[in-house]
Design goal:
Elements lengths: L1 E4 L2 E4 L3 H14 L3 E6 L1 H9 L1 H8 L3 E4 L2 H9 L10 H15 L2 E6 L4 H12 L4 E6 L43 H11 L3 E5 L4 H13 L3 E4 L3 H5 L8 H5 L3 H8 L4 H4 L1 H15 L4 H5 L1
Helix pairs in contact: 1-5, 2-3, 2-13
The structure holds uridine-5'-diphosphate.
Length: 285
């Protein structure tokens, strides 16, 4: 079951329910996209019809963040609670280790996906990591489909020559988006975690899910950085008080500009669902 929030699909699931849905997707085999939706993206989707469409074409959309849970309540269509990218990823990795599902970690700075994989394997000895690849490859727009690997690293954190994942260590080459798609396809994972930041990761998955052929692809934002120990998560008391956003802001002050969207989102939700005649936007869909 799902609701319509400001024109976007949000599934009425808790963490356990989301894991079960993913298990069904893995069993079904054809490509599925999972989105953990936060207020920033939902707000942006109001101005970007293509993004709204992409969200509505996903197979599972969870409420990532207290803002979405609050908005669903104001709209009169509550959801059970938050299902964040990192919580869903950790629960799925645990399940993957038990079920023998193969996972692939794509994204973050060179070395981070490998370190995250190493730590996950240490925690879950049976876990099969089908591959890892950093997230600073050449975008498809810059490399025609026929174009093979190559080029220089542009804006790669940790140095221009740094290339991690399945690429040869020390190589000057940076893979293209097409190489990465091929690499994922060839690795045949059951679950693909994509950490490129939202909505870049959602667009990447939507663009390539058919050619990659992975049963479940899911965008997980900065989760690899947290799992690899590069970025600390907000303390548990802050998470429980729905103040994780504040914890992030204190640790990464550069995020303040992005957070300006939160009061706008609040206003939009309030205007649509409290001051309008009932559930205006949802009524349209
Ligand atoms: N990232 C990446 N390639 C890019 C841009 C970002 O791999 O071209 C990674 C970045 O290193 C970080 C993650 O994507 O690990 C984004 O994390 P953030 O917390 O900003 O994601 P959000 O929570 O905004 O989705």
């Amino acid at each position: 079951m799902h609701i319509n929030l400001l024109g976007a699909r949000v599934d009425v699931v808790d963490l356990a329910g989301a894991v079960e849905k993913v298990a069904d997707f893995v069993a079904a085999g054809r490509p599925h996209q999972v989105i953990t939706l936060n207020p920033e993206i939902l707000y942006r989707a109001q101005q970007e019809p293509g993004l709204l469409d992409l969200i509505n074409r996903a197979d599972l959309v969870t409420a990532d963040g207290a803002g979405i849970v609050w908005a669903a309540r104001v709209a009169g269509t509550p959801v059970p609670g938050r299902v964040t990218g990192i919580d869903l990823m950790l629960a799925l990795v645990e399940r993957a280790a038990r079920e023998g599902w193969r996972i692939f970690l794509l994204g973050a700075a060179p070395g981070v996906a490998e370190e995250a994989a190493r730590r996950l394997r240490a925690k879950h000895p049976g876990l099969v990591v089908a591959g890892t690849q950093h997230g600073y490859f050449k975008p498809a727009e810059e490399v025609p489909a026929e174009g093979a690997a190559g080029g220089t690293a542009v804006g790669v954190p940790g140095g221009s020559a740094a290339v991690g994942g399945a690429c040869a260590a020390g190589s000057e080459k940076v893979p293209s988006e097409w190489d990465v798609v091929e690499q994922v396809r060839a690795a045949k994972p059951d679950l693909l975690f994509v950490a490129l930041g939202a909505p870049k990761q959602e667009k990447f998955i939507a663009r390539h899910r058919q050619s990659m052929g992975v049963p479940v692809s899911i965008g997980v934002g900065g989760s690899f950085d947290v799992i690899a120990g590069r970025v600390a998560r907000a303390p548990l008391w802050m998470q429980r008080l729905n103040l994780e956003w504040l914890g992030r802001l204190l640790r990464e002050p550069r995020r303040w500009r992005r957070m300006l969207v939160l009061p706008r989102f609040t206003w939009l939700v309030w205007r649509n669902y409290r001051w309008g005649k009932g559930n205006r936007v949802a009524g349209k869909g």
